[in-house]
Write a structure and sequence with these properties.
362 residues, four-stranded mixed β-sheet
Length: 362
């Protein structure tokens, strides 16, 4: 009887000990994972769990980013912990839209010489960059010029050299043989940058037809008059090219006959599909102008060149989508002309996750 009571007490004591240890362990786990950053920010366990392995391979730790390697002039933020997932989602969206047969005519194009002319090559670091004008491409070209060894730093590159393809040391993919082109498309790191399609068109219009740099007189003196003759409704209007004329030209299903006359100058306003063939070429990363402060260091890291060159400092606010500006430019345009314009650029909106403009839905 005494032995039985002794065993029961031992068993009861063991149970209490197990319960006590479980409570201590639970408290420890709660304290450990409640706020790992110590800033009280809300955590997203699902996202962090999903990107853990990719994060180790792709995202640099904050302590690695010394002052000289702060490409955008901003601190390396915790938002980049989510970037591998963000970029995977962008590529997945692209693949899904590319498979949409209803959008095939707007999402697919041949990998022609026109496309290959847009892709710049850095053989030394196995990188291909597709140029999409009016999306900060000048800075990326400077990055590649330094990587190719033509200049030792971005600050040394004269502005007149950046777009002079005979002097800047940037070969185009079209300059290689078919077999060499295929090899590079299969093996190299490939990327390009996009922005809201309508805001890009506004930027192209302002740069080429309003400000019109002195070294590009043909936009104002040759291209603008051709568009005006074909698309201006009020023949009594004597002003230079207006945005309404530009929109009417771009939205015309028969715009190609003018495009042929304009030659490669159309690269500033044709679709991303026509420039980079995103459904035919498997790109590694697609950056967005609106998130370039985070995308630029991510691209440099993903390409393995973050220790060799930095992306030039981005002026504050320059990448923010300006909804007010876009609505102001389109406020005087007829719904018919806006719908025709959207019909042409719908592939760009859908492929890269940009919303259809609110003023088009009203």
């Amino acid at each position: 009887m005494s032995d039985n009571m002794h065993h029961q007490w031992l068993l009861l004591a063991a149970c209490f000990w197990v319960i006590f240890m479980f409570m201590v362990a639970s408290k420890f786990i709660t304290l450990t994972f409640k706020d790992p950053d110590g800033y009280g920010a809300k955590q997203e366990p699902l996202i962090l769990t999903a990107v853990t392995k990719v994060e180790e391979a792709r995202v640099p730790e904050e302590k690695h980013w010394t002052k000289e390697f702060q490409p955008t002039g901003k601190a390396f933020t915790g938002n980049l912990l989510r970037h591998p997932l963000v970029h995977m989602e962008r590529l997945e969206l692209l693949r899904n839209v590319c498979r949409d047969t209803a959008l095939r005519n707007l999402s697919h194009t041949a990998v022609s010489k026109f496309v290959l002319d847009r892709i710049f090559v850095c053989d030394k670091h196995k990188i291909l960059f597709c140029q999409t004008p009016k999306v900060g491409n000048t800075q990326w070209k400077k990055v590649l010029i330094v990587l190719n060894g033509a200049y030792s730093s971005i600050d040394e590159i004269p502005e007149s050299i950046v777009h002079d393809h005979e002097k800047n040391g940037l070969p185009r993919l079209s300059s290689f043989s078919d077999s060499e082109i295929k090899k590079r498309l299969n093996l190299y790191f490939k990327f390009f940058i996009v922005r809201d399609p309508f805001e890009r068109l506004i930027s192209a219009f302002k740069d080429k037809f309003v400000h019109n740099p002195r070294f590009e007189p043909w936009y104002r003196h040759e291209i603008a008059p051709s568009i005006i003759r074909k698309y201006r409704r009020n023949r009594m209007e004597t002003k230079g090219l207006q945005f309404e004329d530009f929109v009417r030209y771009l939205g015309d299903p028969n715009h190609r006959w003018l495009d042929v006359q304009f030659g490669d100058h159309i690269i500033h306003w044709v679709t991303y599909v026509e420039l980079c063939a995103p459904c035919e070429i498997t790109y590694s990363v697609i950056g967005h102008h609106e998130t370039l402060e985070d995308d630029a260091p991510y691209i440099l890291k993903a390409a393995g060149i973050d220790r060799l060159v930095s992306y030039p400092t981005i002026p504050p606010g320059i990448t923010v989508y300006n909804k007010t500006k876009v609505e102001r430019y389109f406020s005087g345009i007829s719904k018919r002309d806006i719908r025709r314009l959207y019909a042409r650029f719908e592939g760009d909106f859908k492929l890269f996750g940009y919303r259809e403009p609110d003023f088009l839905l009203k």
